[in-house]
Amino acid sequence: MEGMRLFLVVILAMVLSVQSQLGGLKPGFYSSSCPNAEDIVRSTVESHFKKDATVAAGLLRLHFHDCFVQGCDGSVLIAGSSAERSALPNLGLRGFEVIDDAKTQVEVSCPGVVSCADILALAARDAVDLSDGPSWQVPTGRRDGRISSASQASNLPSPLDSVAVQRQRFAAKGLDDHDLVTLVGAHTIGQTDCQFFRYRLYNFTTTGNADPTISPSFLSQLQTLCPKDGDGSKRVALDINSQAKFDVSFFKNVRDGKGILESDQRLWGDATTRNIVQNYAGTIRGLLGFRFDLEFPKAMIKMSSIQVKTGSDGEIRKICSKFN
């Protein structure tokens, strides 16, 4: 009997520890107050995905950018010339219409109950799942923030960041190297503009040379896709081999000198991040590599719990693009 009590105490402690890490969030938060919420979000994302599968990467990036500024509080969804989404690092964000669509439908079913921040977190999960990636239970219960400032978006990760800078930015949010590499793996379904990496192809060190970390055969391929004086807004897949599928191809590309963004390829030049990339790419013999489809959900749950607002903090917006 005493042993059973001790066991229950340990289990309770573990549960409380997990809840503490999640900032008060829990799966199924709306099971009673709005039981159809997750189904509505899913069907909305699926509807948009069928029309344009690239919106999946947009939703995933939208959630990431939201969490890295002010925490995961939907602040990136606010419209306005001085709002977060108007900051330079956010100008290419996509998927706002999906969140607005889902919010409109959720409001019909359960007015004033489900936050925009939670809809965004759920939509990001559904986007990954629809791209043949893993699914997971999203802890919910976030409330929407009342602050959205473009000036606060300056600390978002940049494609120019070294591993040291990336590590610093992620650590500031409570994320370690494993989280960093795992979350960057979301680029397996992303795209970017030529203008954000073309300098690597023609004038990397202002001497007219290309970035030496790019595989020579891949360099010519990229130069064909992005001519020196071509359209800088032309879109190129961040995972050149399987841009529509959420898989480990991205990590194999980084291993082989085929990372598109400088910040991605730099993961191979740091001993710690290189080891994680090797694991995901399946190139360490004799070791059971990390399973990306298992580790990505863990990293997403951890990231989506950054500085969340719960309880009476924040608000539940009626319209995601403006404060109540």
Automatic annotation (TrEMBL):
**Mind listing the UniProt keywords for this protein, alphabetically?**
Oxidoreductase, Peroxidase
**Entry keyword annotation includes Oxidoreductase:** yes
Q: What is this protein called?
A: Peroxidase
Taxonomic lineage from the root: Eukaryota, Viridiplantae, Streptophyta, Embryophyta, Tracheophyta
